[in-house]
Amino acid sequence: MSRMTRETRTLVASLFLAFNFCIHALAEPTTPVSEFHEGLIEVMKSSSYSDRVQLLTPYVANNFDTGTVARIALGRNWRKIEEGNKATIMALMGEVIVSSYASRFPAYSQQYFDILGQKSVNSDRVIVRTRLHTSSEIVDLDYQLVELDGQWRIFDVVANGVSDLSLKRSTYSATFKSAGVTGVIKEIRQTIKDNQDKASLP
Asked: What are phi and psi of 34, to 5 degrees?
């Protein structure tokens, strides 16, 4: 086998560096948070709820891990659920996240986000600390992310110390106990409808 030429070695080294750079870029925990914030600002500038849902859906799909959200929200009950219902719940988790933010941010009045820093929880978990500035208040938003296949994905948002995922887990655990998986699915769908109804109020 012939030896690699200097040009070939240089090309291989360049490709290796480029590959490592891409992996590093994909693994940056603040990237999905920044992209989600960009989506929220865009959403705030749309007066129509349906437009806000349409705008926000790809941002949530690209930057959240609804599988982790669903698994943690259902806790140990997740193992008891058959695969078809698991897929339904994961899809609904994406819808409930979108509808929640689409209803909470109906207007733009110079809001902006700051990224304050990040903290590793373990090898595949990170918390990204951010702050939302509005004309009337400042909200601390801590994003919890998990690394999956080299990409960081959001699975929980803690607003001023209150974990959205903890609230979901408390609610859905109680519902599962009383009404099973059918009750959980029904409750998530009702939450999506409630968010839509809230957005339509004057």
From this structure: -60, -40
Token digits for 58? 């790809």
Enumerate the β-bridge partners of residue 18.
none
Element (H, E) at 108: none
d(C-alpha 195, C-alpha 104), whole Å: 9
Decide: residue 126, CB within 10 A, 0-12 exposed, 13-18 middle, 19+ buried: buried
Quick one: DSSP state of residue 79? G
Is residue 22 packed enough to be buried (19+ CB in 10 Å), middle (13-18) or exposed (0-12)? exposed
> Which residues have CB under 8 Å from 198's CB, separation 6+?
103
pTM: 0.84
In the chain, where are the structural domains located?
6-200
Residues 27-79 pLDDT 10s:
589 999 999 999 999 999 998 999 999 999 999 999 999 999 999 999 999 99
Question: Mean of the pLDDT values across residues 97-102?
Answer: 97
Q: What is the pLDDT of residue 201?
A: 76
Angstrom distance (rounded) from CA 177 to CA 147:
31
Rounded to an integer, what is the distance from CA 183 to the centroid of its chain? Answer: 24
- According to CATH, the topology of domain 6-200 is Nuclear Transport Factor 2; Chain: A, (3.10.450)
Q: Give the residue among 171, 152, 194, 157 at the shortest CA–CA distance from 65.
A: 152
